[in-house]
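Why should sequence recovery work at all? Because a backbone constrains its sequence more than one might expect. Tight turns favour small or flexible residues, buried strands favour hydrophobic ones, and helices have their own preferences. The token representation captures these environments compactly. In the example below, the structure is given first.
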């Protein structure tokens, strides 16, 4: 039976099994299964070794996206540059690491009609999701400012992303103290911090005393809840808002296509993801 799974710790609340199992069923891949593989760090080497004979591939999530690299045989450039693997495929006896977060984010922005080339983007946060966002934005020709509470982390991000960008590179790093000065100059704001995520739904990375820029697009990677406090602030300011569920579904669809070599049924995956979030909330 072709099996794929999710390696992480914790993984219990993931909506990926619902999304992928619905997609397998929709395409008649009745013997495929997506399972949760809860994996504390000391068990990571054995877990990855088990992929070699029991699994066709896997997703990887917090906190293993970086650690997993040393156990793989090859890692594609985009994932290697930002040192984050979220998808593994088995090619014969070799395990190959990919990153579909970056492309999933870019595809979702473009699906919403946002042209990335020439944008002045502000990315809030400098963790794993920020790396994926900045790589995608920089490769599509945006100018990016990374805002972080720890500047060295922002500079590290810049160094990593640089290895994966194939043309002129425009990434700045700034502390939150500069937010009021930088805000009026940007037209795309991407929240990659967990602020506003369930259960702390009243939190927002954007202080009420600073105006959001006119005509900006605000993208919040948080998808639980579907509408975050930041998204409400942006809506009230008349801005275009996008939540993180589309990125989640698109990164999943790209992983699905790597494993099955079939076109992912995006609508089915969307519906299954939304249903799973509703059930989790109940
Ligand atoms: P991470 O690696 O832990 O990074 C989190 C970042 O947020 C860090 O830069 C951290 O700063 C910053 N941060 C945390 N609390 C903060 C605060 N109070 N004020 C300012 N900055 C703060 O986590 P991640 O993997 O990037 O994930 C971040 C969020 O994105 C999560 O909510 C996750 O669910 C979401 N996400 C969504 C998708 C999707 O498909 N939609 C994909 C990936 C991630 P420090 O480094 O200073 O601590």
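From this structural description, the recovered sequence reads:
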């Amino acid at each position: 039976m072709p099996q794929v799974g999710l390696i992480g710790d914790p993984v219990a609340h993931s909506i990926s099994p619902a999304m992928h199992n619905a997609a397998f069923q929709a395409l008649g891949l009745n013997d495929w299964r997506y399972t949760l593989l809860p994996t504390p760090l000391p068990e990571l080497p054995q877990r990855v070794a088990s992929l070699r004979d029991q699994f066709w591939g896997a997703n990887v999530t917090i906190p293993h996206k970086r650690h997993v690299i040393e156990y793989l045989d090859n890692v594609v450039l985009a994932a290697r540059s930002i040192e984050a693997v979220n998808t593994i495929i088995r090619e014969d006896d070799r395990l190959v690491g990919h990153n579909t977060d970056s492309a999933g984010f870019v595809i979702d922005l473009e699906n919403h009609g946002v042209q990335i080339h020439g944008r002045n983007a502000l990315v809030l946060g400098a963790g794993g999701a920020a790396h994926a966002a900045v790589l995608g934005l920089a490769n599509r020709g945006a100018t990016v400012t990374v805002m972080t509470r720890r500047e060295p982390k922002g500079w590290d991000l810049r160094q990593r992303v640089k290895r994966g960008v194939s043309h002129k590179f425009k990434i700045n790093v700034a502390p939150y103290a500069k937010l009021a000065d930088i805000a009026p100059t940007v037209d795309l704001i991407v929240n990659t911090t967990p602020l506003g995520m369930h259960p702390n739904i009243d939190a927002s990375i954007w202080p009420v005393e600073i105006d959001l820029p006119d005509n900006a697009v605000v993208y919040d990677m948080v998808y639980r809840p579907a509408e975050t406090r930041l998204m409400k602030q942006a809506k009230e300011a008349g801005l275009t808002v996008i939540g993180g569920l589309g990125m989640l579904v698109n990164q999943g669809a790209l992983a699905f296509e790597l494993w099955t070599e079939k076109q992912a049924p995006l609508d089915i995956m969307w519906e299954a993801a939304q249903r799973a979030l509703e059930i989790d909330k109940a």
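A few observations help interpret the result. The first strand starts at residue 3 and ends at 8.
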